[in-house]
């Protein structure tokens, strides 16, 4: 619900019940006032007429006064209703409708000598018997149209025929009470309009603040929001700026930590690369010297493969750090895939050759240039070749074939190794393997390397498919568009 | 005379290994361990330079910049950081190729050989592999001096491989570019042509090898 709507709703929700309650209170108060007035009229009239007159002719007591023509003014028309006014006429009437009031007298046992007197209302009788000086109640007139008011009052003449007077008049009506509501409606409407108009600038400022906050969030909370005025909205803006400063500080600290970690990783990687290269050199020298000498050679081959695995892990670590940072690829340069394939194959030959696995490659004469991060693409292809060599057996083959295709390029890494079971292949193709599975080293745990290859391919907008090679093993295909000229 | 290679590398063990390997591969290496020293060395007598980037004294980039201002000698950069930025910068400054650490000595030697071989790859009309000689211009093929009569398709096939001497050419490319698209056009026909060609070339046919998963290659003699 918007602010304006809520304000209007709240205003109506409080004003309407309040007005209804006021009308109700007005009704009750008017009713009480009428009752007292009727009581006082009845008592004062009874007193002025005197007890004797009442005792002698109770049915005529409190009879209406004779008509007073003098009051009607000269030339006034005769009264509309001929004959004497109705009995029991008390005064010119009370209450808003000015209907005539009537009164009857009763004895202490609430019996009247007047045959036209109604039966004394039981409710009022109970109230008087309980000790009240007077009691009143609403009643419905005989014609059923008007709400009347009945007041019972003790005259103070405890014995005889005139100890209680029952006066009937007209009280306040609910319609009359609700008149208050109608009369205040314009006021309520004016207030509503005033509230909505007053909310206008407030709503506008809040909207401006919202836009400011969005802008600030877009700039990593660098841009502060504008603070104007001294009200709650200004407080909110100030509070946001303070919160933004804290977020900035935390982001900065995180950033700093991230940079430190990455620098540490880069330095450590650098420090590891040199001894690892020396280790590879020693292994290569040993292999040359032993030259295929039985058991030692098998061990040396194992060591060679593990060293290669170690090197690939470190490279993948670097690639993963780059990929997992979630940042867009910063490095986008022309990458010639032919030279890249050649480098990758030469990297794996020193391990594949002694294992009896032939690694071949075919590249077109024309350079195939794509755009991307050369280190990452090289690592992706290297991971595919590494897997193909690692899970192959002596006498096996691995081929990397780079071709131009109508859509750009197609790079296939094929082998004739044991391949991957159909079910496993399906899971590899579905790619979203869980991290711990990806790290396993079991025979088909093509894992981390494949995972990174997938990520790299995806980040470059290339496609990668895995399937059975026509030669029996696994075939991984990367395809994508060439670099467009001038980009 | 053995080609001279200048190695700029600060790590003692690694430098020692590379020097030995280069020597074993038939090069005459000169080893410089310091960036400042590298700035002083004249590139004149060297056929190739192997340059590490992280050096004491002066950064490899500075060495590269100074070198490129005066010489076109091929430069192979040893990149320790697995960082694309370094490689791109090195290539921009005029490096010809790079090898990322950790590398196998064989890998480095292969890159050096590839770099030095490249000028020899310049288009020549005569390609020789052992006793097999292919004259691309005259469309003549001889084995041990004796001319071999080839059909047009057979010669085109051999010529296509000779133009990319030592490299594997894919079957698909050969089918598309050598075979007559109207009449023949399958990889099976290609295999038949190759097998006939091998027979006709006799002893020279051994240089025409099948490359698993790729296609065919005209081998350089001396390669295992």
Question: What can you tell me about this protein's structure?
Answer:
The complex is a heterodimer of chains A (487) and B (224). With 487 residues, chain A is an alpha+beta fold. Chain A has helices at 3-49, 51-56, 122-129, 174-218, 232-290, 294-324, 337-352, 374-390, 422-430, 435-438, 447-459; strands spanning 102-106, 134-140, 147-154, 164-170, 333-336, 358-362, 369-372, 397-405, 408-415, 463-468, 474-480. Chain A has 11 helices and 11 strands. In chain A, strand 10 and strand 11 form a beta hairpin. In chain A, helix 5 (232-290) packs antiparallel against helix 6. Chain B has 224 residues and is an alpha/beta fold. Chain B folds into 2 domains: 4-121, Rossmann fold (3-Layer(aba) Sandwich); 126-218, Orthogonal Bundle (Arc Repressor Mutant, subunit A), CATH 1.10.10.10. In chain B, strands 2-1-3-4-5 form a 5-stranded parallel sheet, sandwiched between helices. A 4-stranded antiparallel sheet of chain B has the order 6-7-8-9, with helices on one face. In chain B, strand 11 (208-211) and strand 12 form a beta hairpin. In chain B, helix 1 crosses helix 5 and helix 6 (152-163) crosses helix 8 (187-201). Chains A and B meet through helix 5, helix 6, helix 7, strand 6 and helix 8 of A and helix 1, helix 4, strand 5, helix 5 and strand 10 of B.
């Amino acid at each position: 619900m918007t602010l304006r709507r809520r304000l209007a709703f709240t205003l109506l929700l409080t004003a309407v019940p309040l007005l209804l309650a006021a009308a109700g209170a007005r009704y009750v108060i008017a009713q009480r006032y009428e009752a007292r007035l009727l009581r006082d009229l009845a008592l004062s009239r009874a007193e002025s007429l005197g007890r004797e007159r009442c005792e002698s002719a109770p049915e005529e007591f409190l009879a209406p006064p004779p008509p007073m023509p003098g009051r009607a003014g000269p030339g006034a028309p005769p009264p509309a209703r001929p004959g004497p006014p109705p009995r029991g006429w008390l005064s010119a009437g009370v209450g808003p409708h000015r209907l005539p009031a009537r009164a009857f007298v009763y004895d202490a046992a609430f019996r009247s000598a007047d045959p036209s007197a109604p039966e004394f209302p039981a409710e009022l009788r109970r109230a008087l018997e309980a000790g009240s000086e007077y009691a009143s109640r609403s009643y419905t007139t005989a014609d059923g149209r008007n709400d009347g008011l009945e007041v019972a009052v003790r005259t103070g003449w405890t014995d005889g025929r005139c100890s209680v007077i029952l006066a009937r008049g007209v009280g306040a009506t609910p319609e009359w009470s609700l008149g208050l509501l109608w009369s205040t409606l314009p006021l309520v409407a004016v207030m509503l309009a005033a509230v909505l108009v007053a909310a206008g600038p407030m709503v506008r400022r809040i909207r401006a603040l919202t836009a400011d906050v969005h802008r600030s969030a877009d700039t990593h909370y660098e841009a502060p929001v504008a603070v104007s005025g001294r009200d709650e909205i200004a407080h909110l803006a100030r509070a946001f700026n303070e919160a933004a400063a804290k977020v900035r500080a935390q982001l900065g600290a995180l950033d700093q930590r991230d940079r430190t970690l990455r620098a540490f990783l880069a330095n450590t990687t650098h420090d590891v690369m040199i001894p690892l290269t020396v280790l590879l050199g020693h292994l290569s020298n040993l292999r040359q010297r032993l030259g295929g000498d039985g058991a030692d050679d098998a061990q040396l081959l194992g060591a060679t493969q593990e060293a290669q695995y170690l090197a690939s892990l470190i490279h993948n670590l670097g690639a993963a750090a780059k990929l997992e940072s979630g940042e867009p690829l910063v490095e986008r340069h022309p990458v010639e895939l032919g030279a890249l394939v050649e480098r990758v194959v030469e990297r794996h030959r020193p391990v594949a050759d002694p294992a009896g696995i032939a690694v071949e490659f075919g590249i077109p004469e024309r350079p195939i240039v794509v755009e991307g991060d050369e280190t990452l693409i090289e690592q992706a292809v290297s991971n595919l070749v590494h897997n193909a060599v690692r899970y192959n057996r002596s006498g096996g083959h691995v081929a990397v074939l780079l071709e131009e295709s109508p859509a750009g390029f197609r790079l296939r890494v094929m082998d004739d190794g044991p391949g991957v079971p159909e079910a496993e292949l399906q899971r590899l193709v579905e790619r979203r393997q869980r991290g711990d599975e990806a790290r396993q080293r079991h025979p088909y745990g093509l894992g981390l390397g494949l995972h990174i290859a997938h990520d790299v391919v995806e980040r470059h907008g290339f496609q990668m498919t895995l399937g059975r090679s026509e030669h029996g093993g696994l075939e991984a295909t990367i395809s994508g568009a060439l670099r467009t000229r001038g980009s | 005379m053995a080609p001279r290679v200048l190695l700029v590398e600060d790590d003692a063990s690694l430098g020692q290994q590379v020097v030995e390997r280069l020597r074993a591969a038939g090069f005459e290496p000169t080893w410089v361990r310091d960036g400042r020293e590298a700035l002083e060395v004249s590139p004149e007598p060297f056929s190739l330079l192997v340059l590490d980037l992280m050096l004491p004294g002066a950064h490899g980039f500075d060495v590269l910049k100074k070198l490129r201002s005066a010489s076109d000698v091929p430069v192979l950069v040893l990149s320790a950081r697995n960082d694309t930025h370094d490689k791109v910068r090195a290539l921009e400054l005029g490096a010809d190729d790079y090898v990322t650490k950790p590398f196998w000595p064989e890998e480095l030697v292969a890159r050096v050989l590839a770099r030095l071989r490249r000028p020899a790859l310049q288009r020549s009309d005569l390609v020789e592999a052992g006793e097999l000689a292919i004259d691309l211009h005259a469309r003549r093929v001889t084995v041990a001096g004796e001319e071999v009569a080839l059909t047009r398709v057979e010669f085109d096939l051999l010529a296509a491989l000779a133009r990319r001497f030592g490299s594997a050419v894919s079957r698909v490319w050969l089918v598309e570019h050598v075979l007559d698209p109207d009449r023949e056009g399958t990889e099976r026909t290609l295999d038949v042509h190759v097998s006939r060609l091998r027979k006709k070339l006799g002893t020279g046919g051994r240089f025409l090898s099948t490359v698993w998963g790729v296609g065919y290659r005209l081998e350089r003699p001396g390669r295992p």
